[in-house]
Amino acid sequence: MTNAASEPQFLIVMGVSGSGKTTVGEGIAQTMGWLYAEGDDFHSQACVSKMASGVPLTDEDRWPWLRSIGTWIDEHARDGSSAVVTCSALKRVYRDLLREGREHVRFVFLDVPKDVLEERLAKRTGHYMPPSLLPSQLEALEPLQSDENGVVVHAHRAPQESVDEALQLLGLRPGE
User: Quick check: 121 pLDDT over 80?
Assistant: First the structure.
């Protein structure tokens, strides 16, 4: 829910696999009382199967996924609902597509050291993304740039600390 005097806001929590997108995204949404969507749910079954077999997605694989997330944002913007959605958004061109015509979109880039990512992925169960794809994600990653609307959160510590840092950097307080 948003303040009646304000426009809906959309946060895209971005980063490589294992950076904590789901945990931080859910934490922000819960704290703010906003909608939440898991970006992985927007992937086609073919893309999920491809990643599960250890094959990195191509740009061509990602365009429909990114457009689906954009459509979801547009639908909720029309409803006046603020929301958080996770999306790796590894490349600038992907983020450009997600924010095109959407001035109410901001990014939260979860920056995590490689060794912490590797440790998290080694312990993770029940996710289709194998740890073997981390190097391809790190290679593709173009960190959030200073001219992009967003913040960088150092998400290698306790999840609530990352949520709190994101909210502080974004200037958000519950009930807004």
Answer: no
